Fold NAD(P)-dependent oxidoreductase.
Amino acid sequence: MAIERVGFIGLGIMGGPMAANLLRAGFAVTVWNRTAAKAEPLAELGAAVAGSPAEVASRSEVTFTCVTASRDVEEVVLGPGGVIEGAAAGSIVIDCSTVAPATARLLYERLAARGIGFLDAPVSGGDVGAKAGTLAIMAGGDAAVFERALPALQAMGKTIVHVGPAGAGQVVKLCNQVAGGLNLLAMAEAISLCRRSGVDPAKMLEVVSAGAAGSWMLQHLGPRAVAGDFAPGFMVDLMQKDLGLVLEAAHETHTPLPGTALVRQLFEMLQARDRGRDGTQAIVEALRLLAGEA
Amino acid sequence: MAIERVGFIGLGIMGGPMAANLLRAGFAVTVWNRTAAKAEPLAELGAAVAGSPAEVASRSEVTFTCVTASRDVEEVVLGPGGVIEGAAAGSIVIDCSTVAPATARLLYERLAARGIGFLDAPVSGGDVGAKAGTLAIMAGGDAAVFERALPALQAMGKTIVHVGPAGAGQVVKLCNQVAGGLNLLAMAEAISLCRRSGVDPAKMLEVVSAGAAGSWMLQHLGPRAVAGDFAPGFMVDLMQKDLGLVLEAAHETHTPLPGTALVRQLFEMLQARDRGRDGTQAIVEALRLLAGEA
């Protein structure tokens, strides 16, 4: 009954290393990517390359999707040649993209009507966590489906939590982006005050990271922000996509998120200056703009 | 030349356990507190109790002060019967309070005129860190004075960094409060969105804490906030005192800190409802008020 054949659709910065970790864990992996060239490194590691998402699903007990936006996942799962055309009843589809909770619920229902299980299982931990197999994975869907899929998830992540029914994984991922975005603002305002007060921000980061105001962002992205290294990591454009989903979901429940709304406006300043492909640590540049420094 | 005789003025939630750790490390400790009863537990541990701050300083090579506000530290150091009246030339005064950087510079100059060394050395890590001797300590002042005082600081803290000249310790502490305050808002907005979307916030905290959006606040205060446990820790009233210092210092350098200003307004909502003695995790209650839940 253990899962042996796994599919992976979407071999980008996150999906590529996640699929590679499934291969290393001993699963038979079939892959597909919109831009076919991205499948080549996986083929070299031993993956089979399919001609369509439907073909991936027809060869897999569990099929992962890891794409960018709601419309992308709807297309590869429900569109022509999509997963739903190839997946057998009793198989499982797991979407690791960050999309609207409503999209996750739609996919769950459409697949359930064919007897196919579905989990929304977005991830956190960046390309570093994807490569190391240490992602945090937040899964929504049926508990029995989660239990059955767990060995495959364990090949890619370290902290793997079934957080509730369909859509709950995406809700938790949106909460993750709320917290991450505000932790970035915390980092940026601390660096700005420190610099403009004439104190070395590298020393500030060293000691503040060790106390009650410490965070992953301060520790990992603070030094890059101080050094002026704005290479992504996680791009401003993608963060804005996610914060758009956050504020949409918050509006549906009339949940005021004044801090998150502010973070979105600061990233808007960067996008307005064609810096959407910078890493999110570039939020320090928005504060420099506010202060008339640039 | 090693320091043997140490004084401690201000035996509150932080100062009491810090003085106890100096005793445990083998220093001869003399203490004084405005409310004399708070000196008794230290006397039982072997501390001498002096009749005034001046007497503490006259018996000590290094004298610590750990009080609440700028006016308190000015009074115990510069006021009648204050440290400056008893401290010998060549001795050292170290203020661990969180006060304005300008106050630290004033104390440095007034003491330097008498040949007395001064460090501003505020701390982070809360009562837990004070008891465990694991505080983060951010010290401003002369490097030679820092080096000489280091063994005494090591009895109380774990990460101890000389961050720059007089006042720099307080600047870094204010940066710490900026980051801590916004990390609290991150925690609160994530919990609010999660709850109002019908997902269990305890599961959200478990998985988000493990990823790139993790922070000390989310990990340590998130569970208390979710459980409705608002006992301090660190009180809203004291956070507001510190955020007042932050915004004053930011104004002097014309540094826009829109997120920190927002955090201050949310805590203002709690103070308006007589909840200033709650712990800072009560910021989740401000978001409930915004959402019309209370």
Notes: Chain A touches chain B through 76 residues (CB under 8 Å).
